[in-house]
Specification:
Bound molecules: NADP nicotinamide-adenine-dinucleotide phosphate
Radius of gyration: 19 Å
Helix content: 25-40%
Strand content: 5-15%
Order of helices and strands: HEHEEHEHEHEHEHEHEHHH
Low-confidence stretches: none
Organism: Streptomyces sp. 900116325
CATH superfamily of one domain: NAD(P)-binding Rossmann-like Domain
Protein name: NAD(P)H-binding protein
Largest sheet: 7 strands, parallel
CATH class of one domain: Alpha Beta
Strand order of the largest sheet: 3-2-1-4-5-6-8
CATH topology of one domain: Rossmann fold
Pfam families: NAD_binding_10 (PF13460)
Structural class: alpha/beta
Number of strands: 9
InterPro entries: NAD(P)-bd_dom, NAD(P)-bd_dom_sf, NmrA-type_oxidoreductase
CATH architecture of one domain: 3-Layer(aba) Sandwich
Distance between the termini: 54 Å
Number of helices: 11
Length: about 300
């Protein structure tokens, strides 16, 4: 029997060498979806059944991205690293997708994305969202919640996390739950989807203070993680003494301040609604990173 349009649809995935895109690609391969895995260093892309490795293609390079996207019907665009030109880079990928006749884009953004978001990394995510909204292409915005792994990765060698937050809450979510939601939307490949034009905030099941989150991580790992709140002045002085740049200090402090201001605290039903399973509590996360491995907020 000939394959249906839905079964033939090829999904291109970016960010596959990373934590989130890699998980999405593995899940799509499990569902036997034909894929194009796109990366800057194709030799690092995984070998998965039904998947072609494409690249080298960086978001900023329109020609390489067009070549890499040729034949795709859906693009899962995982947001890139913050470079100061992230909007331009993402816009280049979107234009390359349109030029190659891609039907729809699933853009992986960040919860709290907004022009005045406290967390600095969330601001240009909003600009990409607005850019997409101004194009004709079908798209869904998947705003990833903050990873359950990040508080553990922020700890120092003695498992202490320090930062300027005390009573604010965050609905941390696992990479696995985020990848499951993205996969569910990608698999919904009909000509129309209820997710077209939607913005989905993918969150964990509870809004926790950092103290609560880190106490649960300690119980789950058996390691002596603990949280010590700092004033803004203490936070700044400690980071400055460590020789960290002003931009990094600002980004790092803004991560805690976004929690303190409640900007990450909303709990949504997106994970259970789209995956059919409850969102994973922080205590049940599948893995934990080593201390001092947080990217961008060190
Ligand atoms: N939800 C959260 O808590 C959270 C936390 C941190 C970051 N984020 C955001 O979510 C994205 C995905 O998270 P993640 O954990 O999967 O991050 P990750 O492990 O750092 O992976 C990022 C992926 O994006 C690729 N990439 C970055 N910039 C690119 C560019 N200009 N052109 C082409 N590829 C590029 C990287 O490729 P290379 O291997 O070539 O570098 C890598 O495959 C991050 O990039 C960041 O925007 C979210």
């Amino acid at each position: 029997m000939p394959l249906s349009k839905k079964e033939r649809a090829t999904v291109a995935v970016t960010g596959v060498t990373g934590a989130l895109g890699g998980r999405v690609a593995t899940r799509l391969a499990d569902h036997k979806v034909p894929q194009l895995l796109i990366g800057r260093r194709p030799e690092l892309l995984p070998e998965l059944p039904g998947a072609q490795r494409r690249g080298p293609a960086s978001y900023a390079d329109a020609g390489d991205m067009r070549k890499a996207l040729s034949g795709a019907s859906t693009l899962v665009l995982v947001s890139g690293h913050r470079t100061g030109r992230r909007l331009e880079e993402h816009a280049t990928v979107v234009q390359a997708a349109i030029a190659e006749g891609v039907d729809r884009i699933l853009y992986v953004s960040l919860v709290s994305a907004g022009p005045t978001a406290t967390y600095l990394n969330a601001r240009d995510q909003w600009m990409t969202e607005r850019y997409l909204a101004g194009t004709e292409i079908r798209h869904t915005v998947l705003r990833a919640g903050w990873y359950t792994s990040t508080p553990a990765a922020l700890a120092d060698e003695e498992f202490v996390v320090r930062g300027p937050a005390s009573t604010g809450r965050a609905a941390f979510v696992t990479h696995e739950d985020i990848a499951d939601v993205i996969t569910a939307v990608a698999l919904d490949g009909d000509d129309r989807s209820e997710h077209d034009g939607a913005t989905l905030d993918i969150t964990g099941p509870d809004a926790l203070t950092l103290d609560e989150a880190i106490t649960r991580i300690a119980a789950a790992t058996g390691r002596p993680y603990r949280f010590e709140p700092e004033t803004l002045d203490e936070a700044f002085a400690r980071r400055w003494r460590q020789g960290i740049t002003g931009e990094q200090i600002e980004t790092w402090i803004s991560w805690y301040q976004a929690i303190e201001r409640g900007e990450i605290s909303t709990v949504t039903d997106v994970v259970p609604r789209l995956t059919g399973s409850p969102a994973t509590p922080i205590s049940d996360a599948a893995w934990w990173p080593e201390p001092k491995t947080a990217r961008g907020v060190r």
